[in-house]
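re: ur question from yesterday

yeah so i grabbed the chain u mentioned. its 310 aa long if i counted rite. heres the sequnce exactly as i have it in my notes:
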Amino acid sequence: MTFNPSRRALLQLMSVGGVVFASGLPREARAGSKSRPQESDFFFLQLSDLHWGYDGPSNPRAPEVFPQVIETINGSAAKPDFVVFTGDLTHNTDDPAVRRKRLRELKDLTARLSCKVLHFLPGEHDAAADQGAAYKELFGPSYYSFDHKGVHFIALDNVSDKRGALGPVQRDWLAADLKKQPRHTRIMVLTHRPLFDLAAAWEWATEDGANVIDMLLPYPQVSVFYGHIHQEHHHQTEHIAHHAARSLVFALPAPLSVPKKAPLPWDAAHPRRGLGYRAVAEAAAWPPILKEQLLEPAATEPETLEKKAT
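ran it thru and got these structure tokens back, copy pasting raw so excuse formatting
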């Protein structure tokens, strides 16, 4: 496999989500090794906080967003190994029938994606009201692990419990899962809420997140990818890197920057500002074309990226 997607194709994917480059090789093997097997390098796409069913002033075009995202992904020549959805697939409702309808509609939409390997996580909008019952009926287990090209992925559920916790049963499962992994294993954790206390007053934390991080710390190569906060954010817990994805539908203010958390106002002149545009170089050294040309400031708008790509 040649790991060399074109710049234009990657920009298309970056316009809708987080493009994450990874390698299953240990750091020492990646550094300066001319014999590195290319098939160990890959990238995946993180989409988060779709809020299917949202109908509000912070995005009057909300119903159009995900169908457009699907068209963009399908039209890009850069093909991710898989797509991961890190929660809040749907917007909150107190009506169980509406919740199931929205989840079913969202699942049907994802079937249109040309990438058929999809991994889902619930958000609190999907699962908190019924402890994940409807989500599990349609999408399966709310926490699980899988391996891909030398990387061990762990998907956690810190939303079905209304306290925003994993709880003892899931922590025991995580401990057993980690026990099977050699210390040099590259681990990527997928979750909805941040595992660290970013803004507990806004529920931007995981109640037992410190316990989870303590379980992960013995492994020297761990990264966490999450959603929930609707903005780009990067954090380091010792050697563990945490990366947040932007929402596809509406943005939220910076942590504790305003008295009350609420979606940012709709900007008709820049309808995509603050939504879904992020790229993370993770694990593998970026191919030269990416290192030289794709490291853009976080605030760069997609219009500017497309102009530079021409």
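noticed a couple things. Confidence is low (pLDDT under 50) at residues 33-39, 277-310. also The longest strand covers residues 41-47.
anyway ttyl
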